[in-house]
Amino acid sequence: MVDSLLKKPFRKSNDNVNRIYHIINSRAAYQAAMGLGRTLPPVVGYALADLLSGLMSRMPHLALVRAVRLNQWIVHDRQVDSRQLDRLVRETLRSAARAVYDFAHWKDHPQVLKKVVRVEESFRQVAEKARRREHGVILALPHMTNPDLLGWVSAPLFGRLTAIAPNRLMEGYQVQNQLRRQVGIEVIPGSLEAVRTALARLREGEAVVFGVDRPYADSAFRPRFFGLPAALPVAHVRVALKLDLPIYVVGAALKEDKQISLWATEYRLHRLPNPQEEILVNAERVLEVVMDNIRQYPVQWNMTFPVWPDWMERVP
Questions:
Q1: Above 70 in pLDDT, residue 9?
Q2: Domains of the chain as residue ranges with CATH
Q3: How does the average pLDDT of the chain come out, rounded?
Q4: How many Å apart are CA 303 and CA 141, to the nearest integer?
Q5: Residue 26: what pLDDT?
Q6: Residue 25, pLDDT score
Q7: b/e string for 75-104 if b means 16 or more Cβ within 10 A?
Q8: Any idea what the Cα angle at residue 63 is, between residues 28 and 9, rounded to 5°?
Q9: Are strands 260-267 and 161-165 parallel, antiparallel or unpaired?
Q10: Looking at the DSSP assignment, which residues form a beta bridge with residue 264?
Q11: 46 to each of 2, 153, 197, 201, 238, how far by Cα in Å?
Q12: Which of these ranges, 4-18, 89-103, 186-200, 267-281, has the smallest mean pLDDT?
């Protein structure tokens, strides 16, 4: 029965697709996932995560599935066929589902977390700069591997961590943000006021996290990402240019030894006489660092929004 479900695509129904999408992103769904994750042992938790993600991957009209399919196609240089994309979508969703389980199951076990997450020296040095208030620390964060678990582990290293988030959050994200506050992460919805807050805290030597790979339709810039223009945020570059600070690009990957490695790469700004070109060039150079991480571990790129929506209809 389970095998037949995983092998047969679900029929399209707009009502059902919309209902499933809202259920997945609801407060109740996230709380249920966290509750199950806390109580189920790994062998059962991973099996359930694999089953649910496998079922979801067979719903081709679900917005989340279409987004992952598009993103993986572009990441693989538009060189993979439909069957290969089926596999990539399944593996990406499995990685994301297991990440939810890992966060729920291990977040309250600090001794185990030390074995699950390996914080590399490059990242520790960046956190120490913020803790000592040497200068403001701008972190550019892609959605790699398990952002929630990595935030849970790394936030205490900074003292206080401010995260600039999308200004429209679904219910599930609101629950996540409540959890993040427990370890000193303050999430501020993106706005002009949020940028002012970020500037003030950076001037005080604190650390501020900016997401760099989630599409932002209102962006005035279209930096090239995997060779194509994408509506991505550039606030991290604007702030860095204003304060003359480096940007630390966060990298992460679940390695073969089953440990998640967390590191940081320093990026120094490239100054140009044209302000618009200056923002665009630096945004693209930051994204080049992100691309290296994604290319090495493509199915660990946990991005479930379409980064290149104009290409959606061309996906196999």
A1: no
A2: 2-106 (no CATH), 110-300 (3.40.1010.10)
A3: 89
A4: 12
A5: 63
A6: 59
A7: beeeebeeeebbebbbbbbbbbbbbbbbbb
A8: 100
A9: unpaired
A10: 250
A11: 15, 21, 40, 40, 41
A12: 4-18
What's the token pair of residue 33?
A: 């996932």
Q: Which residue reads 């790699």 in tokens?
A: 144
pLDDT tens digit sequence for 108-135: 998 999 899 999 999 999 999 999 998 9
According to DSSP, the β-strands at 161-165 and 185-189 are parallel
Length of the chain: 316
* Contacts for 17 with CB less than 8 Å, ≥ 6 apart: 59, 61, 62, 63
Token pair listed for 46: 């991973």
Six-digit token pair at 209? Answer: 């996290």
Q: Which two tokens stand for residue 109?
A: 């076990």
Please compute, for residue 158, the number of CA atoms within 13 A of its CA located in the half-sphere on the CB side.
31
Task: Specify the long-range contacts of residues 41-46, CB closer than 8 Å, at least 24 apart.
Answer: 42/101, 42/105, 45/101, 45/105, 46/98, 46/101
What are the CA-CA distances from residue 286 to residues 73, 239, 292 (Å)?
21, 14, 10
